């Protein structure tokens, strides 16, 4: 077998696994009530340059998506939206821009989950470090407060992509949140903990009492300590897929 054939086989195997993982993340988002109707979108790069990527099909409910349903698109192909199976316009606008411009965004999960979106509706959506989970995002999340409407135009997608900077998560004012990762596991774990962090903060606000915000040095130390548990991000996603495999493995089809 030639070296080129080996590379081709490995590339196919990698895409298949990414399809399975992205379909699992979509199913899990639905189970957690993070999705919004048949909107919101996930993507994952399958090419070395990140510009060819998978994205969920237009207006298919997250709970029904299978690995084989995911669309393969090219961020540099201007004819994508003229295809009969074109993705959602805002999915194309946001995710094509991310995969063109954000090298560390191999996987991008964009959602409007209830607690994160609630926080995004506030004049100040800062995730203050009031516990271990909120501290995970101390100085490790971007804030985009320049909402430009539903992101159906390329300019809005480009603007959103530029908001990340070096960060792997962005709080999108008046909109929602997006997390990035090198893998689906990392992006999913970030989204899980981001929504948990926002829930904790919203519940704390609801008491009407003053927040007990950590000093900056303590919050920075706690944020750094999360890296000690980096392997837990992969274990978390693997365990969630085990639950799906036991209850409904159809996402793998």
Uncertain parts: 1-10
Average residue-wise pLDDT: 94
Strand content: 5-15%
From the N-terminal CA to the C-terminal CA, the straight-line distance is 28 Å
**Large-scale geometry:** globular
Number of strands: 7
Task: Please trace the helix and strand order, writing H or E for each element.
Answer: HEEEHEHHEHEEHHH
Q: By helix and strand content, what is the structural category?
A: alpha+beta
Rg, please? 18 Å
Order of strands in the sheet with most strands: 3-2-1-4-7-6-5
Largest sheet, strands/sense/barrel: 7 strands, mixed
Tell me the number of helical segments per DSSP (H or I, 4 or more residues long). Answer: 8
Give helix % range. Answer: 40-55%
Structure in words:
- This protein is α+β, with helices and mostly antiparallel strands.
- The chain is built from eight helices and seven strands.
- A seven-stranded mixed sheet has the order 3-2-1-4-7-6-5, sandwiched between helices.
- Strand 5 (about 140-145), helix 5 and strand 6 (about 170) form a beta-alpha-beta unit.
- Helix 1 crosses helix 8 (about 230-245) and helix 2 packs across helix 5 (about 155-165).
- It is globular, with a radius of gyration of 18 Å.
- The model is unreliable at about 1-10 (pLDDT under 50).
Brief overview, please?
The protein has 253 residues and is α+β, with helices and mostly antiparallel strands. Helix content is 45%, strand content 12%.
Summary tags:
single chain, 253 residues, alpha+beta, seven-stranded mixed sheet, 12% strand, globular, disordered N terminus
